[in-house]
Amino acid sequence: MTLSIRKLHESLGGEIDGVDLSRPLDIDTRSEIQAAWETHGVLVFRNQDIGDTEHVAFSRHFGDLEVLPETDRTDDTMPEIFILSNVGADGKIMPVESEPVTFNTLTWFWHTDSCYRAIPSKGAILHGIEVVKGGGGETRFANMREALAEMPSDLRSRIEGLEGQHSWAWMRSHRNLPPMKAEEAAKVPPVQHKLVRNHRNRSQSLYISPLYMERIVGWDEEETRSLVEELTEWAAQDRFVYEHAWQQHDVVMWDNTWTMHIVLPYDPGSQRRVMHRTAIAGVEAVL
Ligand SMILES: [Fe+2]
To answer: How far, in whole angstroms, is CA 195 from its chain's centroid?
Structure first.
């Protein structure tokens, strides 16, 4: 064992010491990180002043990488890097009503990444290049295994067998973003996933992603929103949630299959926030 792991919250999250992500990973360290990721769901690596090339190289140890359906959200030279930033190429904060800034504020809603894919992402790795100063911008992660395991039996019985419809295009229309280009929308048609997710290791988790959940299959809008809100409130309780307060050059790696997350609001007109993300492609559908 070369890494040390400090638990960050009773439910999930671990801070890893003893690894430099700018250097190639040896196979033993990779295995230790993989095991810690499975156990803790969210891993924090502090003081990792890495470039995009190193970020992508580290991410590839854990699977194939996704490329976002929208080409203007990614770096031309490195499409695996998804840029979440309110700072323009000129180094200045962009107007709050600009599309990239509006897009960033979508993360202020609970979600799990890539739920709009038939095989959603396994996980994501986010590098804090410029982090919010003066409060706001923290990321909260919820443990959806525990949220399901501890759910009151009446609520649990109401969600058994239900499927949620997740849609990137619906999310955009619902959040007043311009419609997608047809060729981009064609890559991500709406998909349906069970609310009670079965994992290969026989564990189960609650699988919801309120930002993208267009409807519960067979339900109307009002019934859908009411249940999704009830489930979100249940899962977002402090006992299931680790809140990450960002420091510059934190790298945070999370499992999208049994956690969901949200960014706490900040003032995008005055507080700079520049984050680069990779997403590790899923290997199994929501069972
Ligand atoms: Fe996200």
So the answer is: 17
